[in-house]
Amino acid sequence: MVIVSVAVAGVMGVYMVTTRSSADPLVRKQALAIAESLLEEVRAMPFTFCDPDDPNVYTATGAAGCTGGAGGANDESRLPLGPEAGETRYAAANPFDNVSDYAGFDTAAAVPAGICDISGACIAALAGYRAQVAVVNAAFNGIPAADALLITVTVTGPTAETITLSAVRSRYAPNL
Prior knowledge:
By secondary structure, the chain is an alpha+beta fold. It has one helix spanning 2-43; strands at 130-137, 148-156, 162-170. Strand 2 and strand 3 (162-170) form a beta hairpin. The termini are far apart. The relative contact order is 0.17.
């Protein structure tokens, strides 16, 4: 009886350790899915010389061809990168419309806060997750820094599990 009790206690200990650590892969997979989704969303956005709202977006051969010229409000090369006034990820009338708009995006500071789809519908089951996006100019494989952006998405889960994914997006300029 004592031997069986000791054996059962040992097996139960193994089950407890396994059960306690089995939730970690779920957090990691959810964080990875969030990071992949947000990175793909950012990469799918245009990266042209001019803001996509600029009437010269398809004809400009450089930032000087944008309305307002180089350094103007429609020049997507001007620093710091970030959204134009009034643009947010969730605005139906004035949403993010290019890669650089996502620079500094943080779901903790966004309105609404939390992991939400592009329409602003938040997912209650993902309330403990936070996603942050960094977008910086970076030279890549012979492409000058002015024509390439390094996008980094970092997702932190409720157990402080962190996933970081990065991708490079090169400028699409139809008349270059």
